[in-house]
Write a structure and sequence with these properties.
Blueprint: E1 7-8, E2 13-16, H1 20-28, E3 34-37, E4 54-55, H2 64-74, H3 81-100, E5 115-116, E6 126-127, H4 134-148, E7 152-154, E8 158-165, E9 168-175, E10 181-185, E11 188-191, H5 212-220, E12 224-225, E13 230-237, H6 250-253, E14 257-260, H7 279-291, E15 296-299, H8 308-311, H9 313-321, E16 331-340, E17 343-345, E18 357-359, E19 364-365, H10 378-393, H11 419-432, H12 439-455, H13 462-479, E20 504-505
Parallel strand pairs: 1-10, 2-3, 2-11, 3-7, 11-18, 17-19
Antiparallel strand pairs: 4-6, 5-6, 8-9, 9-10, 12-17, 12-20, 13-16, 14-15, 15-16
Length: 507
Amino acid sequence: MITDFDAVLPADVVVVGSGVAGLTAALAAGSRRVVVLSKGRLDAGSTPWAQGGVAAAVGPGDSPDLHARDTLAVGAGINDPAAVRTLAREAAARIADLVAAGGRFDRSADGAFSLGREAGHSVHRILHADGDATGAEVQRALAAAATAAGVEAHRNVWAADLVIDGGRVVGVTGRGPGGERLLFPAPAVILATGGAGRLWSHTTNPPAVTGDGIAVAARAGAALADLEFVQFHPTALASGRDPMPLLTEALRGEGAILVDESGERFMLAEHPDAELAPRDVVARAIWWRSREGHGVFLDARSAVGSRFPSRFPTVFGICAEEGLDPRVDPIPVAPAAHYHMGGILTDLDGRASLPGLWAVGEAACTGVHGANRLASNSLLEGLVFGHRAGRWAAAAGPSPSPGMLRDAADPGPDPGEAPDILAELRAVMWDRVGLVRDHDGLVFARDRLERLAEKLPPGSSEVHNMTVAARLITESALARPESRGGHYRSDRPDADPAWARSLIVGG
């Protein structure tokens, strides 16, 4: 009932999430009344943490077709070719939009974009800002543009559930910073909640990245896809911090190498591209090396050396905090959960299976990444598909009438964080649903996660969402009896041609 809420705040478009995808969608919605909900500060998500850059075919000798081929090659056979072509062909236009909005990318002396190279890319095509602070610059530019455009932002609002009427999404409920029960009626809701990295005890993701979009969409009955495909970044700083500081792949693009404690460069025997092999290959190689009792280090002394403070100032600062000088010290590294290729199933305009619902960015599964994301395609995905979704959501129609909101469920008070349950959930996901999986481990994880869910107090919270997302990811990993991209089963180590397809659940 509407009367159950402390405030009813109608809008034309509600965007849940304030990173690159959410803010791009909000800006693309144009003159409509757009409300952006962020469960923390506007920069609480993953976007400001992105170091490497944005991939786009804007340099000499490059083309959208070549970018698309590289993306397909890394995706392990299950990308949607139409989505990949859309991403690559619209990249330059979205970069131009970002520059027009005030985005500042690093440039060479002649004014051209300074382009880097990362794993899986056949040419230099990675735009970067402030060396290794690209995400922070993208977030700054988009937030400033959204403010100038009059986008209404609500900080510290946690989105609880979608409101459904007659099979159509007509709004979203949430809790405000003081526990206020809020209702946001709208003919269009865009979920841009990011990924699910915090489900694992070792992750590069900030605390806000808890799989909320997956859980919210699943409870509403939306279709989800490719949930088993999780990308573990090969080179997080092995310092004991949570989250683990990321060491951008651009370091390896500059020539940094991976060595063990004896100085052996072990990736030469693992893949023809050595350190520039696809991320899943490099991450598992480091995992196995560590399991054998070896230390693993990223050695950039020769490749970067004295240029570290200017070329990679973010990484240089992170290392300094740990008492390391990467100009003279190899950097201890380990894999960490980084990116979720799966999510809410959408078409190329961000439409989910439920009318009135769109999803963009890491929360969505457009099919563009397949089983393994190509480096620096993540910020680009938010720009390209956020733009497309925002334009279509703006045309969704009139706001829902009060009668359509009669089934809106009061989110109730926050039941608390349940730290013990959270810690065990993250440990189970890392140990059993991590880089290397098998049938018995996945069954154990599924059963344990079910018992953890039963221990939760009534209500809705981040931990409730995390248990939903973790169980769905685990069940999808159990249902895919092969290894492909970011999903590796030690009991089924080969790819099965019969499974060269997406696994769709719900809907």
